[in-house]
Amino acid sequence: MQHAGELRRSLGPVDPPETITCVECEGVAHLVSHPPPDQGFEQGQSVVYLCASCGLRLDVVLDTDEGDGDDSSPAWRHPIG
């Protein structure tokens, strides 16, 4: 049986974009999370963005886009659901 950390490592690295569009005001939200030293972000990890316009914190789970069949393409989903 794999532990959650082992499963996460097996999913592979993801490079989240430096900016995304804020869901509240449609402003620019900047990535404020930093990957662990000598490692990148991994699928299943949560990262934090902060909107420069309204100050909203956006917690995003790094995932693969299962809809297009290309596992290298990152998809973004809210960590709650």
- Radius of gyration from the CA trace? 13 Å
Number of helical regions: 1
Domain module count: 1
State the helicity in percent bands: under 10%
Q: Order of strands in the sheet with the most strands? A: 2-3-5-6-7
State the order of secondary-structure elements, H for helix, E for strand: HEEEEEEE
Structural class from helices and strands? mainly beta
The low-pLDDT segments are 1-10, 67-74
Portion in strands: 35-45%
Overview of this structure, please?
With 81 residues, the chain is mostly beta strands. The protein has one domain. The chain is 10% helix and 36% strand. It contains one helix and seven strands, in the order αβββββββ. It has one helix at residues 4-11, and strands at 13-14, 19-21, 28-31, 41-42, 46-51, 57-64, 74-77. Strands 2-3-5-6-7 form a five-stranded antiparallel β-sheet, with no helix packed on it. The chain has a two-stranded antiparallel ribbon with strand order 1-4. A hairpin with a 5-residue loop joins β5 and β6 (57-64). The longest helix has 8 residues, at 4-11. It is elongated, with a radius of gyration of 13 Å. Mean pLDDT is 77; it is low at 1-10 and 67-74.
